[in-house]
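Here is an idea for our session: we take a single protein and study its fold together. Which protein we use is up to you, so please pick one and set it down. Once you have written the record down, we can walk along the chain together:
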Amino acid sequence: MTVSTEGSVTVLPPNGPAASDHPPIPAARRVPRSRGALLLFEAVVAFAAALVLPLLARGFDFNPLNRIAQVSGLAALQLRFVLLGLLCVAAVALAMRLRAGRHFDLTARFAAAAIAGLASGFVAAGAVLALHGTPWPMFGLNGDSGRIVEWAHAVANGRPSGSPVYPPAPLHTLGYYAEWFRGGNTAYAFKDLQILGAAAFGPLVYLAWRLLLSPVRALAFGVAPAFALIDTYKPYSQTVLVLLVPVLVALVVSLRRSGTDGWRPLLLKGAGFGVLLGVLFLTYSGWFLWSAAGVLFAALLYFPWRTGRLKGAAFLGASLAGFLVVAGRYLVVMLTEGQTTKDYNFRFDNFTDPAYYLMWRTDMPGKVGEWPLPGEYGGVGLFALLTFVCLGAAIWLGIRRPMVVTIAAMFISAWVMRMFIASNMYETQTVQLYTRTNNQLLYCGLLLCALVAHLVSQRMAARRTAEEAAGAAAGPAVGRPEGSGLPAREGAVIGTLCALLLLLGTVSSSMADRYMPAQDGTYRILPYVSHTITEQDGSCPRFAPGGTCSKDGDQSWLDYIR
């Protein structure tokens, strides 16, 4: 696979690139640079941009429990986000005008990375506002937050955690971070990592999709769908999902090409994928279960049966070896003790139609009337209908592309696993977290919708290239008639960046508002509780309601669990 700065992706067939896969880059715009160095610079830009808004938010002085203050804070973040984003877009427009557009692609590359970082930085800055005045993480020492803090403290002190099946990477990360930066206080350190984890979401997703897509397309078709899942309470679980999909797709793409690769790069690449998947597995393993059948299907379909069976097997063997080196011990634990771990907690979503997956209401849904809301088509909403239409359209347009087939297979795999577990729920009286498949189904569904736009835009670009070639062959006197064909690529890039800037700003504001403190029975109560817990020096948080607090904080959340 090759990545083009022209804004499209080319999946190489086994025998090499097709002549029509990409239009040639004009000589005036061809700026030779190391692809690895450029990706490194993109990463630096994305992560730096992700820290800007959280750092600026530290200077805000709002009462986070006051709704007007919350709205003002979100507006202040939105203003800074859009101004910074518009600077990025303006830089791209300026690059189009200067020096015959020689640096247009390079500037667009860094602008896309910056917008990805700014967007998740917006959500992280929202968490900074929500927890302003309290040192505690969201939910303090209650629920999952309390267990994670306790287990991380045990791990950091050389003791086993309270659950051998809980993913070890978050616990070790929190434990050691607390030792290095918070004097061993894992509770206060968890607040830091909730904010930093949300900030890192955008850059990580962007870089993962850069394995497959060019910069603007990675932002549009990879990052934008992922923002439906960004989370600040436990950011690592959703981050693993949105990284796992592009990594597995890239694995299948590489497997398809392995039959013609050299031995050294083949083995190194396979081992690299295995190590990366091992790290993700140690961070959150649930998505591997929902995805396994679909990825196996895609791997068998794109295995190089004709061009190099031995190399294909070696690639998979190297991947497996890398995975086992990193996560083998935890895999054994999951295969043994994980089989005896049962989830008996029936939550709100366990009582809804299992075919409804478009929104996960969590175990704190707040005030809910009829749910799911009645849809327009046989009780099904138009969004679900669009998802299934795009599933078919994506397969139709991209049936030969591993990216399309793998994502569609992961969607269907999660659907089948969801129905299998739910169908046994009454007999076993267990849940086994099957409602978490909501997130994978939603993400893969959004990706399939984005892939349709991706495939259509590629065909439009190919048509434009053909028109330009025909005009050049006919001679300068003929050219292309005014008003015919398609607009120039530069306009498409700038327009896409503007649209994505406003879209991601709106989504980020909504996801940040989701955790603004309130006593309403939704996840807003998590940061609210943080403002009611006595600090370790015996004082109350600055904005504690009525100036009162307690050891465990407000416990009214117990009335809302469903």
Q: What stands out?
A: The beta strands are 2-4, 8-10.
